[in-house]
Amino acid sequence: RYREGTTQVALDEARRALALDPRMAEAHYLAALCLRDLGQPDDAITALEDAARLAPDLLAAREELADLYVAAGRRAAQVEQLQLLTVLDRRPVRDAALALAQARAGQPDLAILSLTGQLQGSADRPLLSATIGRIWLMLAETSRERTDALPNALEALARAASAPSATSEVKALYGRALTLAGQFEAAEEVFQ
Questions:
Q1: How far apart are CA 17 and CA 125, in angstroms?
Q2: 21, 43, 129, 179: which one has the fewest Cβ atoms less than 10 Å from its Cβ?
Q3: What whole-number distance in Å separates Cα of residue 4 and Cα of residue 12?
Q4: What is the spatial distance between Cα 33 and Cα 146, in angstroms, rounded to a whole number?
Q5: Concatenated DSSP letters for 28-57?
Q6: Per-state percent for the chain, helix, strand, coil, to nearest 5
């Protein structure tokens, strides 16, 4: 029903399932998605918190919870959920999401330190290099006191942009960094 777009019907079905078994994490999760779509984010958060409590390894519930927390301006709670996701799911994409959330929550140095530590002694991971570069670029664009930010952004983004798996987004970030550094011809080449 949810996938068909009949959100209220799906919510009613989820509530009936919860009346039969209030410990059904998946029903709490479905109810939360419906509540979110119906414009009830606070109720959706409560339902997702219930789902995560009942099934701590239900990754989709934690992902949605992190998204709703940031939309509600609860960055610390978002970071907490993303930290739990990095423990439950050891893919680099989780570490990158956590680092970006930490940087946006006012902890860019912690984010950079964490990702840099993961790059040490291992094969270069383009996603982590791109994330480090993105954070340094954010600092370069917003903080004049961080004179190390732009050179560090350029270094990390050059490494990430040269990887065979580099996305157009990573190349655009590198182009932005080059533009900020006044290297317009190189930036144009990257943008093209």
A1: 43
A2: 21
A3: 14
A4: 41
A5: HHHHHHHHHHTT-HHHHHHHHHHHHHH-TT
A6: 75, 0, 25
**124 CB neighbour count, 10 Å cutoff:** 11
Confidence of residue 116 (pLDDT cuts 50, 70, 90): confident
Cβ–Cβ < 8 Å for 72, 41:
yes
**pTM for this entry:** 0.77
Residue 70 has pLDDT above 80, yes or no: yes
CB-based contacts of 120: which residues, under 8 Å, 6+ apart? none
Between CA 29 and CA 32, with CA 12 as vertex, the angle to 5 degrees is 20
DSSP helix/strand/coil, 192: coil
